Amino acid sequence: MTIEHLLAFNIALFAAIVSPGPALLLSIQTTLRSGRSAGIAVGIGLGLMASLWTMMALLGLETIFKIMPWAYVAMKILGAAYLLYIALVMWKGARDKIEAQTAPSRNAFRQGFLVNAFNPKSVLFAAAVLVVIFPKHMTLIENAAVVFNHLMVELCFYSAVAVAMSTPAARNTYLRAKVYLDRIASLVLSALGLRLLLSR
């Protein structure tokens, strides 16, 4: 493995992270609702689970999903149900007034971790990228370096999102349009959940 391999992996990873999806939406919404600390905490949860999926892809979990398709289907159903649950909670709370730092960081971390835990497509993406970019038969140290690199990229990105979205201007804009933004976010999460449930 060379630095060029890691660079190519980071480019593909960054493109995946910034694409609209439940992880990015959750990061932004959590920061706007509960502040920078909660935003960073949810990012840590998202990043930790995403890097664990990469580790499992390196260990061959994709092969297990192919051997036992029911395991992948079960993960899809659980993931879709969790996204729909978050969407429902967000819709119902759209008109609730919020105070600064309302959500404990530990809850934000757990929510971020679970969103990526119930997304089996993450491991399939990781496996596809790993096969294309990295050489076969990497050492244990090289595999560990890939996982650590993935974690650092995720943490840096979501921390930057938390810092950017926790500014007074961003928060005040959100508070003024909270009902509409929460309802839109709820609909987007519902659509993503249904797409995950119905996709083949």
Automatic annotation (TrEMBL):
TM regions (residue ranges): 6-26, 38-61, 67-91, 112-134, 146-167, 179-198
KW Cell cycle (keyword) present: no
Cell compartment(s), UniProt: Cell membrane
Name of the protein this chain belongs to: LysE family translocator
Keyword Electron transport set for record: no
One GO cellular component term: plasma membrane
Its membrane topology: Multi-pass membrane protein
InterPro entries per UniProt: LeuE-type
Pfam families, per the entry: LysE
Assigned keywords, A-Z: Cell membrane, Membrane, Transmembrane, Transmembrane helix
One annotated GO molecular function: amino acid transmembrane transporter activity
